[in-house]
Write a structure and sequence with these properties.
Blueprint lengths: L3 E5 L6 E5 L2 E5 L14 H24 L6 E9 L5 E9 L5 H11 L3 H8 L10
Antiparallel strand pairs: 1-2, 2-3, 4-5
């Protein structure tokens, strides 16, 4: 089970996050009234997807005996005029791969656990602490 806790710092939008036993910060950019002291929430959203993609592809490639070298996952997020979000994911590596290998890696990327969760959505329940 994954958990995360966030606590206000009292400085505009700067918050401290504890996730997986690690300390992180989140903020909004200066042009939105934040301090620009850390990634914004959508940056973490993309980082979660990029991390899952890279780790899953690395595991798959190792299982197949493929050398990826430095794997890079570039992501961008935007909303269209109707407000629907769109993520663009571009993969690259510094080792030569065949077209068949790339086809399989792209297929795997489209089915990583975080990809599926984001695509299918989750139920979110909010409640007040006791």
């Amino acid at each position: 089970m994954a958990t995360a806790t966030i606590t206000s710092t009292g400085t505009n939008y700067l918050h401290r996050i504890t996730a997986g036993g690690f300390e992180l910060v989140t903020d909004e950019p200066k042009h939105l009234g934040g301090q620009g002291a850390g990634p914004a929430p959508y940056d973490y959203y993309l980082a979660a997807l990029a991390a899952c993609t890279a780790i899953t592809l690395r595991m798959y490639a190792e299982k197949k005996g493929w050398t990826l070298g430095q794997l890079k996952v570039d992501l961008s997020f935007k909303k269209d005029e109707a407000g629907k979000g769109h993520v663009r994911r571009v993969l690259s590596c510094d080792q030569p791969l065949t077209d068949a290998q790339w086809t399989r890696l792209l297929e795997i990327a489209g089915n990583t656990p975080v990809t599926k969760t984001m695509r299918e959505g989750v139920e979110i329940v909010s409640e007040r602490a006791a």
